[in-house]
């Protein structure tokens, strides 16, 4: 068997099939927020969050290259990753659709660096925008965590295209 292939084989599946297969992997849901130089706020829903390193404390998430918020998140020095609780599915929807001023509809306070921390979340990570890696049609963002808070709550879960709670049998 040839184990040294320089390139991946051309996929025999389409993107719909790929997305459906990926959607079997249950994730939590985050809203990633930041503040622009003019004082306005920006945020988007992302389920691509994951941990990277304990020392230094690093996390990652990915943003599609064509996202309108790409210039904001690429250029800003800091952002906050808000981990949504089970009763915050409305926030996942709010921040994944074009809305004039979503921050007028949510409760938040400001982080130490002046970025929005959404109230009622299970956890928040205030990150320095450490590095970015373009891959395919997304950019992987690696954040260095400068501050984090948590308040154990049932998390919001994204699975097979649906948002819900854990529904762990008792
Ligand atoms: C549950 C859920 C998870 C999502 N995860 C991501 C993600 O990890 N990365 C991403 O680029 N978009 C993700 N999206 C889509 C963005 O939230 C959506 O495209 C958003 O409107 C992008 O905003 P923008 O184009 O204004 O930047 C997700 C949407 C939902 C509902």
Automatic annotation (TrEMBL):
The keyword Magnesium does not apply. Transmembrane segments: none annotated. Coiled coil: none annotated. InterPro entries: Flavin_Rdtase-like_dom (IPR002563), NADH-dep_flavin_reductase (IPR050268), Split_barrel_FMN-bd (IPR012349). It comes from the Bacteria. It holds the Pfam family Flavin_Reduct. Residues 22-165 form the Flavin reductase like domain. Keywords: Oxidoreductase. Gene3D superfamilies: Electron Transport, Fmn-binding Protein, Chain A (2.30.110.10). GO terms for molecular function: FMN binding; riboflavin reductase (NADPH) activity. This is Flavin reductase (DIM6/NTAB) family NADH-FMN oxidoreductase RutF.
């Amino acid at each position: 068997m040839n184990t040294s292939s320089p390139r991946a084989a051309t996929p025999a599946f389409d993107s719909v099939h790929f997305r459906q297969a990926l959607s079997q992997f249950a994730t939590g849901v985050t809203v990633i927020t930041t503040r622009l130089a003019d004082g306005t706020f920006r945020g988007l829903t992302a389920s691509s969050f994951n941990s990277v390193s304990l020392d230094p404390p690093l996390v990652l998430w990915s943003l599609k290259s064509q996202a309108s918020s790409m210039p904001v998140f690429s250029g800003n020095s800091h952002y906050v990753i808000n981990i949504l609780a089970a009763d915050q599915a409305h926030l996942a929807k709010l921040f994944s659709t074009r809305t004039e001023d979503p921050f007028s509809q949510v409760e938040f306070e400001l982080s130490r660096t002046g970025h929005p921390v959404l109230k009622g979340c299970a956890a928040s990570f205030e990150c320095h925008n450490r590095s970015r890696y373009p891959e395919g049609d997304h950019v992987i963002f690696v954040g260095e965590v400068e501050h984090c808070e948590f308040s154990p709550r049932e998390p919001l879960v994204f699975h097979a295209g649906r948002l819900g709670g854990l529904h762990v049998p008792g």
